[in-house]
Amino acid sequence: MRPRPYVWTASQEKEATEIQTAVTDPGQLDAYRVILFNDDVHTFDEVIVQIIRATGCSRSKAEQHTWEVHTRGRSMVYSGPLPRCLQVSSILEEIDLRTEIQTA
């Protein structure tokens, strides 16, 4: 018995195109990250509160980021789609924190 040939249908083609678009669309990938840099101006509490406001993370996570910024000079506080990274960065910069958006 011979195997039946594989038949490519239009619905499969549409589905494949949608998957490819989702994979290649940078707005859909977590291809961006917000880096927060250390400074000598802000207190730990100011930075913790601002990270929570910007990212919606827990206080514990914000404290970890703040400690990493203090000891290593930087911390990746958020990764996600570019529009959200721009929003997070903007909120952090409201109190003059220094940020950078990088591609992953």
TrEMBL record:
SUPFAM superfamilies: ClpS-like. Transmembrane segments: none annotated. Keywords: Hydrolase, Protease. Gene3D superfamilies: 3.30.1390.10. InterPro entries: ClpS_core, Ribosomal_bL12_C/ClpS-like. Residues 30-93 form the Adaptor protein ClpS core domain. One of its GO terms (biological process) is proteolysis. GO terms for molecular function: peptidase activity. This is ATP-dependent Clp protease adaptor ClpS.
